[in-house]
Amino acid sequence: MIPITTFAGKQVAVFGLGSSGLLSARALAQGGADVVPFDDDEKKLADAQAAGLKTRNLSELDWSQVAALVLAPGVPLTHPMPHWTAALANKAGVEIIGDIELFCRERAKSGVQCPLIAITGTNGKSTTTALIAHLLKSAGRDAQMGGNIGVPVLALQPFASGRTYVLEISSYQIDLAPSLHATVGILLNISEDHLDRHGSMENYAALKTLLAASVEPGGSAVIGVDDRYTRAAADRIERAGRQVVRVSVLAPLRDGYYAQSSDQGSSIVRSVAGKAHPVAQLAGIGSLRGAHNAQNAASAVATCVALGLDLPEIQKGLVSFPGLAHRMQQVGRKGKVLFVNDSKATNADSAARALASFSDIFWIAGGRPKTGGIESLAEFWPRIRKAYLIGEAAADFAKTLNGKAPTEISGVLSAAIDAATRDAAASGVPEPVVLLSPACASFDQYPNFEVRGKAFTDIVLAIPGVAGATP
Fold it and tell me: 206, 365, 398, 426 - which has most CB atoms within 10 Å?
């Protein structure tokens, strides 16, 4: 845990006692602050008390004595309306911050020697974060990974010479981190998301852009420029005098990193003043298959070059990257048949990335449907050899696919895997893929996408003759 000493001797209110909020309260207390934690959930209050924290209803607090309110990122700050604790803080003129801000202030005080890599974007930030951390570790660097990716930032190891922090940052967290100044700030892409929280697309895009715009002096902003919001951001940040490294998977760049396809597979190319040369190969790396992963890889390569890694050690790390569980995760093989767990694809847009990455697909889809169904995936129907439909969406998905691709209503995941495995093995196609990419929420049959993905993995690995896949 990273103790937070920047509020020593001051009273700090903490609301939202999930994993990050509880750690914030403990880190502040360890650093000498007078912490007043609270939550509307009685169980979380009990957990805080069991951890030795003295809780108190923040509505009873004298806010004139409070130095800051540390708000959990999931608690509304402005939209659709401020949470009651935020309203009290605003009325008293108390600043509202989050755990990322606590980290940044402590780093400015005692960890300036530690590089900070901060990653945001609507899509791909978890994979990019994990890939950068993996590349650093494989090159022998001390890399601490956390933030929105699952490990709260204050749970990481304290600041030490030679240690690099690689943090996934959500828009919710950026909103609560005014001192976020990264060594390398990465903005992958921006598309419509979380508008209920931010009020408008303009507000959402501005927050995402802020992470890259606020890199520390001498730092770099690595920006994917394949959408209009990020292109505008790159130009604006560059005009402000920051170093901008552009990344594209759609077109070559005169200056920057871009993906290039050839008969040998995909590669990452770096261009300086129009002079281009390959810097990394992605061919044969199953964990980085697809255009979306090429963007993730190009951003990671650009970051690691900026941090001083050489190209051979970067390439070595790319080849050994295992990928993230439930995100186009190669689970195993039986003969030519590849089994892929993409349980994280809980809507059609997410499933599109997997469907675009393979040619002969035995597709397991369904669950609790999202608005719009799978009509937007029509361009991928020719890739689907057969669909095996499960859960509440099965009947509707069968209607959508009628006349477009063969279907079978399997009902449950185990039956879908059995049928897809049989048909893929008998298909005779060169590279059959049994793909779980549901385009649906899991909640009709599983508590979350992780449990659904683990069920897929467990069933596949229990099939006689299946060998666990390598990256």
Answer: 365
